[in-house]
């Protein structure tokens, strides 16, 4: 198989941070995001195909567990070198992002 490109539009269901009261966001926007929630839409589709709520709950628990395991794995990984941020990102790097530029380690990230 070859490269695959997915375009996924996800509408956030909560604020940008845990204490975000979202006073700037209209209620209609929150309601529309809830109706478009891909996880809830999938659950509805599964129910429409006679999948039980118990099975759906098991799938959610399994997915949550896999995410938690992935988070723990990521936390256990060594910190990457700052210059690694540029690896495998650009086919043709834009000007200013070349090997002739001083490294982040050399400049401390400051211009």
Your description of this structure?
The chain is an all-alpha fold. The chain has a domain at 27-95. 43% of the residues lie in helices and 0% in strands. The protein contains four helices and no strands. It has helices at 27-35, 38-48, 53-76, 104-107. The longest helix is centred in the middle third of the chain and has 24 residues, at 53-76. The mean pLDDT is 85. It holds the Pfam family E1_dh. InterPro entries: DH_E1 (IPR001017), PDH_E1_Alpha_Subunit (IPR050642), THDP-binding (IPR029061). This is Thiamine pyrophosphate-dependent enzyme. GO terms for molecular function: oxidoreductase activity. Its cofactor is thiamine diphosphate.
Q: What count of helical segments does DSSP give? A: 4
Largest sheet features: none
Which blocks of ≥5 consecutive residues have pLDDT under 50? none
Work out the helicity level: 40-55%
Distance between the termini: 42 Å
Structural class: mainly alpha
| Large-scale geometry | extended
Quick summary:
Its cofactor is thiamine diphosphate. By secondary structure, the protein is an all-alpha fold.
Q: Secondary-structure map with pairings?
A:
Blueprint: H1 27-35, H2 38-48, H3 53-76, H4 104-107
Question: What structural keywords apply?
Answer:
extended, 111 residues, mainly alpha
């Amino acid at each position: 198989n070859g490269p695959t490109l997915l375009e996924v539009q996800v509408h956030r269901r909560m604020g940008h941070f845990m204490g975000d009261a979202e006073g700037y966001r209209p209620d209609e926007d929150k309601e529309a995001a809830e109706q478009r929630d891909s996880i809830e839409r999938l659950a509805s589709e599964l129910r429409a195909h006679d999948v039980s709520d118990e099975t759906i709950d098991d799938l959610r628990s399994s997915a949550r567990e896999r995410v938690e395991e992935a988070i723990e794995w990521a936390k256990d990984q060594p910190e990457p070198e700052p210059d690694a941020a540029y690896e495998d990102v650009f086919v043709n790097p834009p000007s200013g992002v070349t090997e002739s530029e001083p490294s982040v380690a050399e400049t401390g990230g400051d211009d």
